[in-house]
Amino acid sequence: MAKLTDPVTILKGVGPTMAKRFAQLNIFTLQDLICHFPRGYEDRTRLVTIDKLEVDVPACFKATVMNTPRTAHIRKGLDITRVQIADHTARLNVTFFNNKFAAEQLRYGEEYIFYGAVSGDFVGYSMTNPVFERLDAQPIATRRVLPIYPLTAGLSNAAVLKAVRQALSICDPPAEILPESVRREYGILGADRAYYAIHEPQSMAEAEMAKKRLIFEEFFVFSAGLSLLRAERARKTAKPYEKLHLQPFLDSLPFTLTGAQMRAIDEILKDLGSGAAMNRLVQGDVGSGKTMVAAAAAYCTVQNGHQAAMMAPTEILAEQHYHSLSKLFAPLGISVGLLTGSMTVKQKKEVREAIASGQAQLIVGTHALLSEATVFRDLGLVITDEQHRFGVAQRAKLSAKGQDPHLLVMSATPIPRTLALLMYGDLEVSIINELPPGRQPVETFLVNESYRARINAFIRKQKQEDHQTFVVCPAVEESEELSVKAATVWAETLQQTVFPDLRIALIHGQMKAAEKEAAMAAFARGEADVLVATTVIEVGVDVPNATLMVIEDADRFGLSQLHQLRGRVGRGGAKSYCILTSQNRNPDTLGRLKALCRTTDGFRIAEEDLKLRGPGDFFGSRQSGLPTFRVANLSMDLQTLKDAQQASAHWIDTEGTAETPEGIALRARIGELFTRAEGTMN
């Protein structure tokens, strides 16, 4: 028997060229191949008669060859084979292109099973390139439920199926990890049967049962992993903070915190005084005041004699936090330091000395905080801003610079509860669902290209009122495949043709990090009237003077992403607007965009986006620690998710430490899953 860890090249027919094609699908071992699950199925078990065939609807039917196939050589590279077939209901003309096999195998007077779709009308039905098999042959392409796999160039569905079948014949499928009690309670197939049935189902019902098992398994593994993480962290103790009085901090603020902010702060203070290490997520919509909540936690930490560190994903965000927090904490006698990668060697040395000595009490920075050269005297609190830009390993690396410091994670990406359970199942969650007083909702409009003159006039009006405008495009450069506005071309058009008298700036993802930071900082200083950008501004610096957001080809973005982009305006006292442009006439697409015009509630938008697009849109390629589920679909398999979470929680409570074969295999799978998920993060 072969092992699951053996390379796919041990299979017959899989040489170096084929192995490279499999590698394009991240298939390197027999386990990778067996876990390369079908994306769907074609039910070819039902046979129809020729007269019941429907135009453009593939079907299986039995027919007799009525003449000897004739092949004509049309030109170099093109041979056409024609043959007539029939059953007791009708005749059918069949054509094969460049198919020597068909000409050789189809014999006059013999019956075959065909699968294909007819074209034409009642004057003369015809069929092109059907697949066929002899009646006495093993069903491979007909008379079966055929799995349809994700493919890549040069790799056919038949080649994948052949390789999978061979792999299952020479090695055992992945070990059983679900306890028998769980399988029995939830009606779940065993691993041995499920891994065979997902690839070779005897019926559509069996395919669904196998799929249910594998979806349940994925959710069970992930939920159990999060439960183990939570349990491990719960065992970590921390000296309870005794000074939990925030009145001096609250009195120093030039505004009153909202009820939601105070609830989040109360939950944080309870954690800090509990004697256990805090692991809390503060989740709030754009502009809901998460930074002030984090500042309160930092104040409490410093009052108890410890240091706090806040890590931001970009230098410009780090500098923004540094300036606002320095101004806030200076009257309270708290020293704030800044550490970023672009600082000079001398500047970094001075800041690191202040951190090591404890002189710097709150340190704001970027990934430079993770450097081995950065040593804290007594790190008591780690704060990460825009958590989805950081992986678990990065948070852990910063936390390792203290003795089990408290962890506070901030996210401005509204996430539906279903997804939050997976994303942050190892964290307690605080939600800020109120906006600070005085913040006006951003008015949103959906228009088509016929409104272009009015859009341009409105941009000019913002300039006349000394305000600025964002213009977001879905692409950086023009493309033949996508007829959408490209940031580079559109910025040039606006500057040379539409607004030659205005200052047009450009920022996109292909620019170097330093160039992006400089462009954004210049816009924030008011050195440009219009900033043409891609989604790199989705998470960016505050520009209170920006009052208009124009999003070109808005149908190319997800709802949650559009909401994040819209959050770049409306951050000052002036009334702000968002204009969505789209030429798409699809009713579903228009309905989705109109939903954004009706509400500014990011959580409602996120729930709608999860239903429409699944989880990928929330995080794009960043993944945010969310593993790539091979079978499960978070927007479709909610009940299975709930069942798996309930089952895994019970398993942790009753059998989590048992050295059963299932328990050992499950813990190994958990380790593999989290390693793979961490590898997808930035």
**What do the pLDDT scores average to?**
87
Helix content: 25-40%
Find the count of extended strands (DSSP E, 2+ residues). Answer: 24
Could you say what the CATH topology of the domain at 443-599 is called? Rossmann fold
Low-confidence runs of at least 5 consecutive residues: 616-625, 678-682
Q: Which structural class do you get from the secondary structure elements? A: alpha/beta
Largest sheet: 9 strands, mixed
As a whole number of angstroms, the C-alpha radius of gyration is 31 Å
- CATH homologous superfamily identity of the domain at 443-599: P-loop containing nucleotide triphosphate hydrolases
What global shape is seen?
A: globular
Strand content: 15-25%
Distance, first to last CA: 39 Å
Q: Mind telling me which CATH architecture of the domain at 443-599 this is?
A: 3-Layer(aba) Sandwich
Tell me, what is the CATH class of the domain at 443-599?
Answer: Alpha Beta
The number of helical elements comes to 23
Short synopsis of the structure:
This protein is an alpha/beta fold. Among the domains are: 46-143, OB fold (Dihydrolipoamide Acetyltransferase, E2P), CATH 2.40.50; 307-377, 3-Layer(aba) Sandwich (Rossmann fold); 443-599, Rossmann fold (3-Layer(aba) Sandwich), CATH 3.40.50. It has 23 helices and 24 strands.
3D structure, described in words:
- It is globular and about 100 Å long.
- The longest helix is centred in the first third of the chain and has 31 residues, at 204-234.
- Helix content is 39%, strand content 17%.
- The strands form four sheets. Strands 2, 3, 4, 5, 6, 7, 8, 9 and 10 form a nine-stranded mixed beta sheet that branches.
- 42% of the residues are buried.
- Residues 616-625 and 678-682 have low confidence and may be disordered.
- The protein is built from 23 helices and 24 strands.
- Among the domains are: 46-143, OB fold (Dihydrolipoamide Acetyltransferase, E2P), CATH 2.40.50; 307-377, 3-Layer(aba) Sandwich (Rossmann fold), CATH 3.40.50.300; 443-599, Rossmann fold, CATH 3.40.50.
- It has 682 residues and is an alpha/beta fold.
